[in-house]
Structure formats: structure tokens, C-alpha cells
Amino acid sequence: MDSGTGRGSGRPARQADIAAAAGVSQTTVSLVLAGNRDGVRLSETTRQRVLKAAEKLGYVPDPVATRLASSRNHMLGVYTFASAFPTDVDGFYYPILVGVEEEAAALGQDLVLFTGTGGADARAHDRTAIRRTRVTDGCLFFGRHIPEEPIDWLLGSGFPLVYIGRRDELDGRIPFAGVDYVTASGAVVDRLIAQGHRSLRYLRENDDAPSSTDRETGVLDAVRRAGLPTAKVVVRREADDVGPDLVGGWRQAGVTALIVEETDTGSLAKALIAAIDAAGLSCPDDLSLAVLGRSPALPEASGFEVPRRELGRRAVRLLVDQITTAPGKRPTVQELLPCRPITGTTIGPVPG
């Protein structure tokens, strides 16, 4: 037994132990550790004595008990519907996760990772798995697609959540921090048109995630502004269907500029870059290339930088704002962050 408190050496310290060590009542300890939210008059000497005793004993509050007492435990959930946690710093989601961690630490919040995508049962979209996030004060969600029913249930229960990435499901009721892909993609096409390009192809995945749809919208809006036809501009392909024959055929048809989206998988941009090389073509001498994002396969490509780190930070701030706002007064905040243009080396005048 600990001679100072009577505490068993193998047992975690409790508030009763702190009260014995500090020579105060357990009620006083509870008030001090809870921040004295009731406004009871306590001397600074007493408060400091309790805090020093708690620190000396290594007291760690029970998060479940804390949540029951205060409705908050300063824990934020992170739940992904995709394989988002990278093994290296080149991962698409790595900067987002760095931003999430940085801002959570700055705001005094802990993070809880929910392993929604793990296991053989592939339960990322399972209602029960998603509802587990309610053990936290609020949760960040991300991934290209979401299950609407459990997210709708969380929103209806008043649980604070923020999606990382623009979402238009559930009648626009999902709070999010996203990226303004429409404006950024349009600016890339404007640049190509300013260089004299009139025959373009935009290569995108078959997947209809909002981020892909926004890029296409930006591309087509810019084409229309230039008074050019849009009928053949957009081409949907999977990465396995992109090769030198496809690129060579475009070139023979008079196409002078290619645009490709860069998503979380990075596979389509990588396939197109490899196909251009296999076709014996170079950029921008033979044709111009723009990547809507930044591809690790060709870092010098022209396009734009997605503000992924700031995206993670902003999402955390929005979530904490929701948590600290009364449920009936929470606005559905939806923010889009601008992208930084990348000049690169792969856009030039029309050849010849």
C-alpha cells in the first residue's frame, strides 16, 4: 500500500486518493478537476494543492465518466470510407491527416481512429460501425463515397460531424470543408486556351464522386466560355484502358492538349503519363499536359496544388465550432478552399 494515500500500488489513482493527499474533500477535488463550472468559491491555494496532488499521483480522468458528467471528453473521431492511412508521405491523404493532427493538438483535442475499413467483413459502410463514433464529441468523415442512411441518422440525432471534401448528398445537409475544384480546373483550361489550344481531351475516371464531377464542371465551363464545342472533350476511362494507342489516336485526330484528374488513387494520371512516354511523345513539344491536382508520377506537371493540409486543419476547426455550439443553433457550414496554381513545365503553345 502507498503510505501517503493508502492506494494499492497497482491501482490507478482516483479522486479519493487525491483528496487524501491534498487534505481536502472529494467534492473539492471534483470541482477543481472539472474546472469549477459551478462557480463555487475556492481559494487559489486549495486549487493548486489539488492539482499538484493529482499530478504527483499520475491521475488520469476516466473519459467515459468525464463524458457522462460534462457531455464532452475532448475527443474527436476520424472515420474513413476509404483506405486513407498511408505507409509513406506520398500518400494522397497524408497531408490531410497531418493537418488534422496539427489542429487537434493546437485546440487541445485528442483523436480517435475508427477502423471502419479494416477486417474481412468490409464494414466501412455498416450502420453499427458508423454509430460507434458517438463515443466521441464529434467526428470527421472522409472518402469518395458515403452511406447516406447512417450519416442521415447521425445528423438527425444532433451528433456533430464534418465531412472532409464537398458533399451534396442528403439535400445538402452535410457540413464539410472541401476544395474549389470548379474554379481551379477552369483556370487550367483557360491557360491552355490562352496558349492557342482548341482541341482538348479531358480524361477522368468512371467514378462519379463529387470531386470528379466538380473538375469536369470546371473544364466544361471554361470550354464553353471560349466558344468551343464540348461534345468530345470528356473521356471516361479506367487506368487499365489508357495506353499509347489511345494517346496516339488523339494526336492523329488533331488533339493538342490533354487534361487528367488526379484522385486519391493516382492511377489514371500515372497511366496517362506512362502512355504519353510509350507513344514516343513529349510535353509540351508534341502536346500539352495538365494534371488537375499534383501527380507524384510527374511532379513538374502543370496544374494546381490541392490544399490538403489546410483542408484537414479547417475541418477540425469547423468540427470543434459545431461541438461548442448549442445543437439548435448549429449552422450547416460548408466551405471550399482555393487551390494554388502550378505553372509546371508541361503546358506550352500549340506545336507547329
Automatic annotation (TrEMBL):
Q: Which UniProt keywords apply?
A: DNA-binding, Repressor, Transcription, Transcription regulation
The record's section on SMART domains has: HTH_LACI (SM00354)
GO MF, one term, reads:
DNA binding
Transmembrane stretches in the record are none
Taking every annotated instance into account, which residue ranges of this chain make up the domain HTH lacI-type?
A: 13-70
Q: What InterPro entries does the record point to?
A: HTH_LacI (IPR000843), LacI/GalR-like_sensor (IPR046335), Lambda_DNA-bd_dom_sf (IPR010982), Peripla_BP_I (IPR028082)
Write down the PANTHER family for this protein, in alphabetical order.
HTH-TYPE TRANSCRIPTIONAL REPRESSOR PURR-RELATED, LACI-RELATED TRANSCRIPTIONAL REPRESSOR
Q: What is this protein called?
A: LacI family DNA-binding transcriptional regulator
Q: Which organism is it from?
A: Kribbella deserti
Source species taxonomy: Bacteria, Bacillati, Actinomycetota, Actinomycetes, Propionibacteriales
